[in-house]
Every structure is written in structure tokens, then in C-alpha cells.
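Board notes (copied after class):
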Amino acid sequence: MRKTTVVFDLDGTLLDTLEDLADSTNYALTRYGFPTRTLEEVRCFVGNGVRKLIERALPGGAGNARFEEVLDCFKRYYVGHCKVKTGLYPGIPDLLLKLKAGGYKVGIVSNKLQGGVDELYHYYFSDTVQVAVGERPGVRRKPAPDMVELALHALGARKEEAVYVGDSDVDVATAAAAGLPCISVLWGFRDRDFLLRHGAACLVETPMEILELCRKPW
């Protein structure tokens, strides 16, 4: 069956958000007197939502007495600073325009807070993407299938018509849980060897390869 719907992860797939995530993490850590983290450390911490990001970055994790305060500080700071160093990966704007011209239904699912997703969606994607689902009450985060299912419902698409695109092991697991084939990108936060070790079966080096795959029968 030819795919008519593409559901994208956000961070590391469409947008390079790593530096803004690291800066916001370190702002919150510094505000409460904790040591900062390197960019590479934050790269390893992201993927499971901001609560898990701060749990991994903060000494003592969720057991730290200041955990909730640091997390809240991160949330407030990030929403206002999520576009400082963030940008679209090369080739993504052209891919999204071609998907739109081809009549594809396109959605975004992210473990990022809905406020941050909304901010980035309206700035980068409102002309080419129909739906953007972020972390919200009552919806389990990826790798649970809930966010993908919510996006598909909003798009009016069936699972059989859809493909999922992401850059991490969380995305591979999310696609499997949702019953969608997964395309794993190699320009994101995880490298080829890591993705293969975590079950990736279809890898692409450029955004336009995604369009080529969508045009072929699956």
C-alpha cells in the first residue's frame, strides 16, 4: 500500500533543538546552584520528555529535593527561548513543501511540552503540517502509541496508510507500538550503530529519501 500520511518526530528529526535544550537545562541547573551539563550529555538525555531530561541532568535525579523546582524553571525558560539557536535541518523545508504538494497528510508527535511544540509549530510548520501533538495531561508519552494515534485521528488517517519518521530508539519503539513502519534518520541525535542496535530497519541519510520511500508500495 502506498503511504499517504507521514508522522514525524520533532527534535532531531525536523528541528535541531539540541543547543536550546542544553541552554535551558543549564539555566535551570545554574539557577538552583547545580553543575551544568555538556552538549553531548544533553544529547544523551533527550528523547523521553522534559521530566526525564531533568531527571537525568540533575544530581540525584527525581529524588533531589529541588527536582520539581528545577523542572518548572526549565519549562518556563524553554518556552520563551526555544527558537534562539534552533533551526530546521537542511532539506526539511523542501521535503515538507513536496509532501504538501503531493497531497500527503503530515503530523508531528513530540515528547516536548505542548507549549513548546505549539511555539515551534506556529513558527516553522503551520503552512505545511496539519497536526502537532506534544506532551499533555491524559496522553502517555512516546514510546506509548497514544500520541501517534491522536495525530492519526486528527488527520483522519488509518494506520495502514501511515509511516513514522524519527531519529532515536524511542522513535523505533513508538512506531512498533503504534503498528507503523519506521524510517530512521541519520542526521539527528543518534548515530547509525546506535539505531541499528535498537532495532532500526530503514535508515535514510537525506530528507528527500523519505519522499522517495513514501512514493513506493510498502
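Comment from the instructor: The radius of gyration is 17 Å. The chain has two domains: 5-16+86-215, 18-80.
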